[in-house]
């Protein structure tokens, strides 16, 4: 994932870093390329616009650090803005509620809800020593409840016994009750998916929510989906209200930009990523690590970070304190 984006951004920014001086026109040209690279990677237009505007603003106001070349400064700014776009700090699942804490999984058909349910349950059981109950609310696909049962057996996690003919809302109610009686810390509700967002799906999700009062509602989204992913996230958030995102198939070789947009569009944190089909292929999402991976210029970023740390000890050079204005594109930074 992100290979193309990494190549493109890498070559644009490398062109800047070696230069001793940089005009505003140079920065504008580079930002146009950055914009194109992000759009080609499927990052949503509104997110790209915001991103490039912020980079430009920061680059224009950037202070000159003695030991840093302007191009390196721009790399650092792009890096920081990528981290910001991805959500700054890593956010994990919130279990801070009275037991049983209800987690509801929502998303389109085949996005990875059932697999992720198993992964989360297995991790909580093995790593966090929690007692977890999983319940399939998928009454549409004939084998769905059986699929979760098998995952439960495979991971040694309890699943709610299947009662044929029960509707999803009734199953949700029974699951929460069973978790209370069974002394479970967490109950995970795996809901049904559809090939596209439709009214009955949204109504069903809203009803389940009302019944089960989940503490976390996780939208599971396939990171290989293109621009539709953004509408998907927005729709689920406005209709059901999500508390976080799980991006699956991060092990695939898609462009990945849509996934990168979801956080910016919904404002909801990406809490976990799926990196394979196996039950242990689940990772926490660290915005900085992903940004590092996309940019692949860790050496420059840390160089600028170090220089910024010593900024107090270092006397800023008197000129130019700011990037040259558009009218003076001939003015260049006096870096050696
Ligand atoms: N490579 C890879 N495959 C995944 C990942 N997550 C899920 N899958 C696969 O995707 C397929 C669909 O996963 P499910 O968990 O059944 O998806 P779902 O959202 O429950 O599907 P429905 O219940 O039909 O809506 C399965 O073959 C999974 O093994 C992942 O992170 N990486
Ligand atoms: Mg499923």
Describe, in plain words, how this protein is organized in 3D.
This protein is of the alpha/beta class. The protein has two domains: 3-89 and 290-322, Four Helix Bundle (Hemerythrin (Met), subunit A); 101-285, P-loop containing nucleotide triphosphate hydrolases (Rossmann fold, 3-Layer(aba) Sandwich). The protein contains twelve helices and eight strands. Strands 3-2-4-1-5-6-7-8 form an eight-stranded mixed sheet, with helices on both faces. α6 links the parallel β2 and β3. α3 runs antiparallel to α4, α4 (70-86) crosses α12 and α7 (168-182) packs parallel to α8. The protein is elongated and about 70 Å long. Mean pLDDT is 86; it is low at 325-336. It binds guanosine-5'-triphosphate and magnesium ion. The site of magnesium ion has 5 residues, from α5.
Task: For this entry, give a set of tags.
12 helices; Rossmann fold; eight-stranded mixed β-sheet; binds magnesium ion; 336 residues; elongated; Four Helix Bundle (Hemerythrin (Met), subunit A); 8 strands; alpha/beta; binds guanosine-5'-triphosphate; 2 domains
